[in-house]
C-alpha cells in the first residue's frame, strides 16, 4: 500500500493556494517516523514541525536563532529524502481561477479550485507512477483543517463521480488526520509551505 500525506497552504501575499505531499510505502513511513521523532527531540526540541514557525522563529521555534531553526529543518529534509519515494504538488491562484471558470455553470468539476488541485495532484501522480516504479493502491491522508476538509471531500466526490479515479489505484476517499500527531503530515507541511 502506498500512502500520500498531503497538506494545503495559502500564500496570502501571492494569492496562491497549494496542495503538496510525499508518497511512500507504509513500511517506509514507519522508519521515517522513528527518525523524524529522534531529530525533533534534539535541541532545539519541538513537539511538531510547522514550516511557517521554523522560517519566522515563532511558536515552537521562538527564541531559536535562524541558523538553529534552519539546521533543524535541514536535518528533517534529509529524513524525507531517505524515505519518500516521490512528491506531489499542485497550485492555483483562486482569483485567476474564478476569472477563467466563473461563467461555466454546467460542469461541477470546474466550479471548484479544490477540484482542480486534486485533479492535477492525483492525475499527475497516476501519470508518473510507472516511471517512478510505483504500483498498487494509493491512500491519501490529508491534514484535518476544519475549514478545508469539506472542500477537499466535495472536490473528491465530484471527481469520483466523473470517473477520474481508477479503482485499481484509488480505493477510498481521503482520510483526515491531525498533523501534530501524524508526522508525515509535518513533512507535507514543509513542502506545501515552501
Give me the secondary-structure topology:
Blueprint: E1 2-11, E2 16-25, H1 26-40, H2 51-56, H3 66-83, E3 86-92, H4 94-101, H5 108-111, H6 113-132, E4 138-143, H7 146-161, E5 175-177, H8 183-193
Parallel strand pairs: 1-4, 4-5
Antiparallel strand pairs: 1-2, 2-3
Helix pairs in contact: 1-3, 6-7
Report on this model:
The protein has eight helices and five strands. By secondary structure, it is α/β, with parallel strands linked by helices. It has a single domain (2-37, 84-193), classed as Nucleotidyltransferase, domain 5, CATH 3.30.420. Strand 1 and strand 2 form a beta hairpin. The chain is globular, with a radius of gyration of 17 Å.
Helix content: 40-55%
Structural class assignment: alpha/beta
Distance between the termini: 27 Å
Show unreliable segments: none
Helices, by number, come to 8
Give the CATH topology.
Nucleotidyltransferase, domain 5
Write the H/E string, N to C: EEHHHEHHHEHEH
Strand content: 15-25%
* Whole-number total of structural domains: 1
Instruction: Give, in spatial order, the strands making up the sheet with the most strands.
Output: 3-2-1-4-5
Record field, number of beta strands: 5
Please identify, by name, the CATH architecture: 2-Layer Sandwich
Shape: globular
Amino acid at each position: 500500500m502506498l500512502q500520500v500525506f498531503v497538506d494545503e497552504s495559502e500564500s496570502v501575499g501571492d494569492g496562491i493556494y497549494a496542495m503538496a505531499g510525499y508518497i511512500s510505502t507504509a513500511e517506509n513511513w514507519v522508519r521515517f517516523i522513528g527518525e523524524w521523532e529522534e531529530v525533533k527531540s534534539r535541541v532545539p526540541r519541538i513537539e511538531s514541525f510547522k514550516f511557517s514557525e521554523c522560517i519566522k522563529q515563532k511558536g515552537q521555534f521562538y527564541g531559536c536563532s535562524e541558523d538553529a531553526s534552519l539546521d533543524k529543518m535541514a536535518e528533517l529534509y534529509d529524513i524525507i529524502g531517505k524515505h519518500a519515494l516521490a512528491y506531489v504538488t499542485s497550485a492555483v491562484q483562486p482569483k485567476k481561477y474564478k476569472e477563467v471558470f466563473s461563467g461555466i455553470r454546467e460542469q461541477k468539476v470546474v466550479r471548484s479550485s479544490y477540484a482542480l488541485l486534486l485533479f492535477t495532484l492525483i492525475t499527475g501522480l497516476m501519470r508518473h507512477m510507472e516511471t517512478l516504479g510505483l504500483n498498487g493502491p494509493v491512500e491519501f491522508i490529508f491534514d484535518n483543517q476544519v475549514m478545508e476538509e469539506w472542500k477537499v471531500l466535495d472536490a473528491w466526490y465530484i471527481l469520483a463521480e466523473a470517473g477520474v479515479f481508477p479503482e485499481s489505484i484509488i480505493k477510498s476517499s481521503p482520510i483526515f488526520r491531525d498533523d501534530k500527531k501524524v508526522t508525515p503530515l509535518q513533512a507535507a507541511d514543509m513542502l506545501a509551505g515552501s
